[in-house]
Amino acid sequence: MLLWINGPFGGGKTQTAYELGRRLPGSVVCDPEHAGFGLRRMMPPALRGNFQDLTAWRQGVVEVLDLALTRQDGVVIVPMTVTDSGYFAETVGRLRELGHDVRHFTLLAERETVLRRLRERGFGHLLQYVTGKNSGLGRETWAVAQLDHCLERLREDEFAEHLWTDHSTVPKTADRIAVLAGLTLRPNDEGAMRTRLRQIRIGVRHIRFD
Q1: DSSP H helical segments within the chain, as ranges?
Q2: For residue 193, what pLDDT is reported?
């Protein structure tokens, strides 16, 4: 089984994926973003854009995940934002065509909630740009500039199943996904402080500067 965790940047995809991986024996987190940023770094800076526009990325993601699903006994967990219908069909849809059991979930939250989460993760400068307090940040705020588009697109029926997370913690969101997918997670016996420190480490590891 593959769990594809969709949602906007700052929506909790990566944290939820690693929470599932922590509590689901035999599972593995496969992050397609690694391949995407690798492809971007191969290109001259002036040509770097959205790596999802590269056919090589979409085909590569399917090939790697197909291999993982074929040879990995446990659940494969994928945190990745996809809002383009065509790209969704070429990745999630193609994996289903290959016969894999793909369960897709979109984590949604109100705009203000996502912006607050971004600020708490150390991206306060992005929030300043969005609220007009610092107009000199320009394209550095690409992810936040895409937020409204992401939230609008991901509400569409094709990106179901939708899970609203405004009033849910990461462990509770993971619990909901597991129930919907028919999976059993290990009990969450981690204290609040340890959980917070672990989530900070995960967040820092996934900060992208290019």
Answers
A1: 13-23, 32-41, 55-71, 85-88, 94-97, 111-120, 124-130, 142-145, 147-154, 170-181, 192-205
A2: 77
